[in-house]
Amino acid sequence: MTPEALLSKLKETATTRTCKSLDAIYNTCMEQKSRKSKDFSYAMIARLGRVHGAPAYQSIRNHGGSVYRALIDSFAAEFPVEPKAAKGPYAWIENLPATSKLLARMLLAELKLEQRKLRELFPPNKIYEIDSRTAPSTNFKLTTMERQALEYLKSDRFLQEHNLKPGPRSDILGPNNEQLFKPGTLAALEKALNNL
Q1: Are 88 and 76 in contact (CB under 8 A)?
Q2: Which residues have a Cβ under 8 Å from the Cβ of 78 and sit 6 or more positions away?
Q3: First vs last Cα of the chain: how many Å apart?
Q4: pTM for the complete prediction?
Q5: What is the mean pLDDT, run by run of 10 residues, along the chain of 196 residues?
Q6: In what order do the strands lie in the sheet with 172-173?
């Protein structure tokens, strides 16, 4: 049924006020059509139709606005909504046959669910250190002589014999407070002794 025929049919049983509103909606829709616009949404017609005295958007959406919606829908039917072209890395799914498309969408949903679970377990931008050695190797352990040498370097006796003292940044300072060993030296020796 054309919008003109539908307008006539709707006006047969409508009140005078409803007839005026239907005419306003019809004129608004005709303007949209003359502009070659495909937007016949209720909100757009209500906004543009204010000039003609069309009812507000809420009045069109209410139960009593079914006649208004029917008239707007008759115009919208002349311009079927074209599906938007799919974008993104999974756009190829839309080109599949219907049966394969459903299966691909289900698999994609499962993939995204598993990816979300992984992000919860291992948040991005966090560094994880993994030691893949099965058992500590003897190559990584200090021998008795190596351990004694490191302990001696760290000892107060060594510092006193050479007129040295520990610095504030785990470094070693000389007699004139000049830095002889870099910052972190004492901490590095302690870690080596504890872990090797």
Answers
A1: no
A2: 3, 33
A3: 88
A4: 0.45
A5: 88 90 93 89 92 91 91 87 76 87 92 93 83 65 88 90 90 89 90 84
A6: 165-166, 172-173, 179-181
